[in-house]
């Protein structure tokens, strides 16, 4: 068994003796640019960086190779653009129609978008998108909708800073907006034996909204524990789905306030509340969404309580990695 490493993605896959690179990649779920499979279209071309490859009766140690013909003779490194790892989706730019900007309370607006017809949306529950501002800069927002909702996209935008006020005004006035998606490595995996543990601060609920909606649409029966925290009780915003989820009995919603003595419900920090409720994290898939400080505090607390690092996913781990 030989190893092929791709640049710039860093993707690695195995190739059997005598197997063509393209065949090996597709057998392992890797999505590759290809068309004719006989080396004529050149779509599957890659640059051999290291190693040795046999192609069309010749042994090559450098230069352009065609993955549909090339058979590795030793471990090799290829510079090959446009290759997607299993489960990875291509990033696309779309001009979306703005269907509405509805206030939900707590200075949060639900923004509803519709993608163009004829261009099916492809994203995983838990991913996010980028919205283009009027000045060309991009703003990141979790996708609150779920893939089964087709062309419809939902965002939860906290409108307190001047930049988000301007963005909301732009959406309301223009009626269309350019978005780029999908972004982020967080996604829903196969059902976990003990269910989902979802921990969200503020509008981090948007990401959890997508995860819950998707798991229910897929017919998963495992329990879902949703912890939603804010500083003041007035920071909670209204979502009809919460009541419906709680009524189902499968989703257990815990609303936690950290700095409001008048709140009659649970008070304290999110990670403290979770650790008070769980003595055993085995079999859970854990997702956290919030500021880097909140996510890392949650990670540290749950690790100390017995959770394994590989159980937890968060976008913070990618955009604000900790030393």
From TrEMBL:
PROSITE patterns: 2FE2S_FER_2 (PS51085), FAD_FR (PS51384)
The FAD-binding FR-type domain, residue ranges: 91-189
Alphabetical keyword list: Luminescence, Oxidoreductase
InterPro entries associated with the record: 2Fe-2S_ferredoxin-like_sf, 2Fe-2S_ferredoxin-type, Beta-grasp_dom_sf, FAD-bd_FR_type, FNR_nucleotide-bd, MRET, OxRdtase_FAD/NAD-bd, Riboflavin_synthase-like_b-brl
Pfam families: Fer2, NAD_binding_1
Residue ranges annotated for the 2Fe-2S ferredoxin-type domain, each copy included: 2-84
Family: Belongs to the Fre/LuxG FAD/NAD(P) flavoprotein oxidoreductase family.
This protein's name: CDP-6-deoxy-delta-3,4-glucoseen reductase
Organism name: Pseudomonas fluvialis
Organism taxonomic ancestry: Bacteria, Pseudomonadati, Pseudomonadota, Gammaproteobacteria, Pseudomonadales
């Amino acid at each position: 068994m030989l190893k092929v490493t791709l640049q710039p993605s860093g993707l690695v896959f195995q190739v059997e003796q005598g197997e063509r690179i393209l065949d090996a990649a597709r057998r392992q779920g890797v999505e590759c640019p290809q068309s004719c499979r006989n080396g004529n279209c050149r779509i599957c071309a890659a640059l051999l960086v290291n190693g040795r490859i046999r192609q069309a009766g010749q042994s090559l140690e450098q230069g352009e190779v065609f993955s549909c013909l090339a058979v590795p003779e030793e471990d090799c490194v290829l510079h090959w653009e446009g290759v997607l790892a299993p489960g990875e989706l291509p990033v696309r730019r779309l001009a979306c129609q703005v269907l509405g900007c509805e206030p939900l309370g707590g200075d949060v607006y639900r923004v509803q978008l519709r993608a163009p017809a004829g261009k099916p949306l492809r994203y995983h529950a838990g991913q996010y998108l980028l919205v283009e501002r009027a000045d060309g800069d991009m703003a990141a927002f979790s996708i609150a909708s779920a893939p089964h909702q087709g062309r419809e996209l939902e965002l939860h935008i906290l409108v307190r800073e001047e930049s988000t006020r301007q963005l909301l005004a732009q959406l309301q006035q223009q009626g269309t907006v350019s978005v780029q998606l999908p972004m982020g490595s967080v996604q829903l995996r196969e059902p976990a034996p003990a269910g989902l543990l979802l921990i969200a601060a503020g509008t981090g609920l948007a990401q959890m909204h997508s995860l819950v909606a998707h798991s229910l649409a897929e017919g998963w029966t495992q329990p879902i524990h949703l912890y939603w925290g804010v500083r003041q009780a007035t920071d909670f915003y209204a979502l009809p789905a919460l009541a419906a989820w709680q009524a189902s009995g499968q989703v257990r919603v815990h609303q936690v306030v950290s700095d409001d003595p008048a709140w009659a419900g649970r008070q304290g920090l999110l990670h403290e509340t979770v650790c008070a409720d769980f003595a055993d994290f085995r079999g859970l898939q854990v997702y956290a969404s919030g500021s880097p400080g909140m996510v890392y505090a949650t990670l540290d607390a749950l690790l100390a309580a017995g959770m394994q690092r590989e159980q937890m996913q968060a976008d913070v781990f990618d955009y604000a990695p900790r030393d």
